[in-house]
Design a protein that fits this description.
Elements (H helix, E strand, L loop, with lengths): L21 E3 L2 E3 L1 H21 L8 H22 L1 H4 L3 H16 L15 H32 L9 H44 L6 H41 L4
Antiparallel strand pairs: 1-2
Helix pairs in contact: 1-2, 1-4, 2-4, 2-7, 4-7, 5-6, 5-7, 6-7
């Protein structure tokens, strides 16, 4: 933290930087990387425990796993892509949903207390995976010429403005789409973590004489922000997967 000369350790960009846990040949392994690896381990371990030895009469882990899997499948994939087209993409979308969600949840876990998605590199990689899948499906389904028509929204019925629309669609789909897909998740987790740090630090800072009541207010706000973050974390996982499905739906849709 930096006190900015006033004694208050204000959070800032430095709150998202961590010293390396260890360094090997110039490669630095830090807390964020550790949490990302733990995210993968948690997701894989849970679903292995839930479905590794699936039973007709499910146990608690299997019931929770089935509920989570069915939620993503029916509420996101089927609603966007339909059952016939969407079934093959359910495993990917379930993996994305729970990976993003657990990455976010670390921000309210003691000792961890940091959302991995607040570091832009992690949402960016996930967005690139979806982007590559969308582009490849577009050209696979429609061919080279049809694929480009699908991407740029080429429509002769628009008359003279069809080229302007195509240019806007090209810029929006090929350049802006992956950026906004990643930044939407990143920005929400970044801002949420900054607010949590602000109120948490303020609660300690204000424990001084007549400012104790203000510390109590700050502490209450910390609890409120934690509860709000729990909601936002799940919503952002939902939105990320929903957008991924909508992009795939656009790739598979027939161009008119």
């Amino acid at each position: 933290m930096s006190d900015n000369g006033c004694g208050f350790p204000a959070p800032g960009l430095h709150s998202f930087l961590f010293q390396p846990i260890f360094t090997v040949g110039g490669f630095e392994f830090n807390k964020v990387m550790l949490l990302a690896l733990l995210t993968s381990l948690v997701v894989v371990s849970f679903f292995y425990a839930a479905f590794g030895r699936a039973k007709v009469v499910p146990g608690k882990a299997q019931m929770i796993g089935e509920a989570g899997y069915d939620f993503v499948r029916r509420s996101i994939v089927y609603e966007t892509l339909g059952k016939r087209e969407g079934e093959k993409y359910v495993p990917l979308m379930v993996s994305l949903f729970f990976f993003v969600w657990i990455m976010n949840v670390w921000s309210v876990i003691p000792l961890a207390q940091f959302p991995v998605a607040s570091v832009i590199a992690y949402p960016a990689v996930l967005a690139i995976i979806v982007y590559v899948l969308w582009v490849s499906l577009t050209f696979k389904r429609h061919g080279f010429v049809g694929g480009w028509k699908n991407i740029v929204g080429y429509d002769p019925s628009l008359g003279p403005i069809k080229w302007l629309v195509s240019f806007i669609e090209f810029f929006s789909n090929l350049l802006v789409r992956p950026f906004t897909h990643a930044v939407r998740l990143f920005a929400n987790m970044f801002a949420g973590h900054l607010m949590l740090v602000m109120f948490t630090v303020a609660s300690w800072y204000l424990l001084n004489g007549w400012m104790v009541p203000a510390a109590g207010v700050s502490f209450v706000m910390t609890i409120v922000m934690i509860l709000f973050e729990l909601f936002v974390q799940a919503v952002q996982a939902y939105v990320f997967v929903l957008l991924a499905c909508s992009y795939i739906q656009g790739a598979l849709a027939e161009h008119h």
